[in-house]
Amino acid sequence: MTRTATSTSSGLGRALVAVYGVFALAATARSLVQLATKADEAPLAYVLSAVAALVYVAATLGLAEVGPNPRRLAWAAVGFEMVGVLTVGTLTVLDPELFPDATVWSDYGAGYGWLPLVLPFVGIAWLWHTRARD
Amino acid sequence: MRTALRQSTLVDGPLPLALLVASLLFAVVVLVYVVLDRTPDWGLLGFAAVIEAATLVLLVIAAVQVGDADLSGPSAITLFGYLAAGLVLLPLGFVWSLAERSRGATAVLMVAGLTQAFVVVRALQVWQS
């Protein structure tokens, strides 16, 4: 017998969506300010900020069950987020000069209380926990 | 003279600190609610309304005083970005939280309260820089 998946936006998931929502809001606002006021200074870092913002927005919508296939959206966004924070975190630790201006994922998100590093793991654990199972 | 004037302004005064303490206290009260498995009530909503009103006052004061503060364009955008975020955080948190009755849903308000505190700190840092 196949049980349908549990809601990702219910119970603990509601608080998780709130945390993702805060990151989506913060990352989007920060990215817009960066791109509008000093886009030429560190284009790579600011493009990365914008990508991170989109990822957080997508993860928030997916986990909040907005759109036609929210679970797939959430998996894709949270997976991308994990790859992003690990890649950018490692690159910035190995070569601090690579990105002249900090992004959310620099140094594994140390500037944001390590939350950017913890969040994708919690997100994947939650998606796994609420998956449809046999 | 200019420094003396700035130090006497309300944004540097007790209001942001009171707002910060109130936001953190709000988060602690919500934590107690979560632990006791109590759903948000009118008391909690009233507390949030007081924080909301104080944030609005801070925003208005900042708008009035920003002319004297030598903030460059981007800093001013950042400052009002944070203050505007401070205005929408709690209402959004309540909308998202009250749609469901569960511990997790109540914990949403804790996230909102802590973020509110963070926003006030950042706004204050931008103002003083």
Keyword list:
heterodimer, A: 134 residues, mainly alpha, elongated, B: 129 residues, 5 helices, disordered N terminus
Any overview of this molecule?
The complex is a heterodimer of chains A (134) and B (129). Chain A is mainly alpha-helical and 134 residues long. Chain A has one domain. Chain A has four helices and no strands. In chain A, α1 packs antiparallel against α2. The longest helix of chain A has 27 residues. The termini of chain A are close together. The mean pLDDT of chain A is 90. By secondary structure, chain B is mainly α. Chain B has one domain. Chain B is elongated, with a radius of gyration of 16 Å. The two termini of chain B are 18 Å apart. In chain B, 33% of the residues are buried. Classes of the chains: A mainly alpha (134), B mainly alpha (129).
**Helix vs. strand class of chain A:** mainly alpha
**Quaternary organisation:** heterodimer
* Fraction of helical residues of chain A: 55-70%
- Structural class call of chain B reads mainly alpha
Total number of strands of chain A:
0
SSE arrangement:
The complex is a heterodimer of chains A (134) and B (129).
Chain A: H1 12-38, H2 43-63, H3 70-94, H4 115-129
Chain B: H1 2-7, H2 14-36, H3 42-65, H4 73-98, H5 103-128
Helix pairs in contact in B: 2-3, 2-5, 3-4, 4-5
